[in-house]
């Protein structure tokens, strides 16, 4: 067979194999087009799990009459025009393949009107022929896309569709992810004529936690710790669940966004998992909803057919930045002051100010502390504050440091008087006191102590800090000169 250029119809169907995996893929592409058009309200109607009908209606800027047919052509887009645009993509779509691919495997109707037009226009395309007909129609400003009989002309693809319930669950999950990315957009989802989801737009400065709770559940909201971390042109915002209270149900909540684009990135997931590893079991996963903002020139989104993955130009910097941001919030939640008295000490508790409560909408900022990350230390910048030293920040902390803390906390044994006078270390000052007898180490960061008949829990980092302060504080005896 000689080498030849494939006809457009065949090329579109090949592209559809990458872009249109299932009805949920169609919904994702069309809703992202609506968001790129500036829509503030999107209505999604689904019938039979998307196999029969997918209708997306928005109030965006619309498409002009003379561009309707062109919009259904392959590689036709208004979002990029040069290679420079491709290297700094800020829109969700940019390839110009979605509408052409979808129309090649369905019966597609595109109705749109701009604010400058007196009437709306409708374009219709069906299957492999790709013949577009345009006629006038009634429609408000915005766009409506109807996808009928998906895969009607590719029986093999249609045969691999799952049950109606399964396909709709995939669509529902896509809408949940998009709703978490755009709190400022009203999104309504219905299936077979029944409204299933209604996400009302949250005004700027409004209660984002209400939508967060509606999507992720109250269990996640109760355990959520707010994050706001910044260094240079990197910004990390969102929520991470307290790893001490992570359940298998919460572990399914793992939503990550890069410049507003939903992602499934292994580098980001690894950084979050590493920050939480001291508090998670081997079979546990962290729960989070995080938003990473980065200079578009420093990230390449054109690396995956469905745009699920990205490539960072400085992946190590991004990894350590996310690790540091998540770790700093967990440190604040775990650390508690240690009063030096004879009363039993309470277990370390979460600081209330760091928890996200329903009805509130502000990010708790990290307290002013010293940098802690073992590999990356963010420079002072607006909105970012470094965190305090914490032994759990070191990946290798488990047995070795636990043994050191055991030695630090044990009651000193009485010293034998030396036979010959020898220079000795100065004794601890009077303001230093024994913490009691160590019974056991709990979760490698707390010690269970017995003192004067009382049982108490002591945070090991706090104990180390007080011991150091006691050694550095002058006592009643004069300071001994070094020999």
UniProtKB/TrEMBL annotation:
Region Disordered: start-end pairs: 369-397
NCBIfam families: mutl, PRK00095.1-1
Composition bias, Low complexity: 378-391
Organism domain of life: Bacteria
Protein name per the record: DNA mismatch repair protein MutL
Keywords from the named record: DNA damage, DNA repair
Family the UniProt entry places it in: Belongs to the DNA mismatch repair MutL/HexB family.
InterPro entries assigned to the protein according to its UniProt record, in alphabetical order: DNA_mismatch_repair_CS, DNA_mismatch_repair_MutL, DNA_mismatch_S5_2-like, HATPase_C_sf, MutL/Mlh/PMS, MutL/Mlh/Pms-like, MutL_C_dimsub, MutL_C_sf
Gene Ontology cellular-component annotations: mismatch repair complex
Residue span, DNA mismatch repair protein S5 domain: 212-331
MF GO annotations: ATP binding; ATP hydrolysis activity; ATP-dependent DNA damage sensor activity; mismatched DNA binding
Keyword match tRNA-binding: no
PROSITE patterns: DNA_MISMATCH_REPAIR_1 (PS00058)
GO terms of biological process kind: mismatch repair
Pfam families: DNA_mis_repair, HATPase_c_3
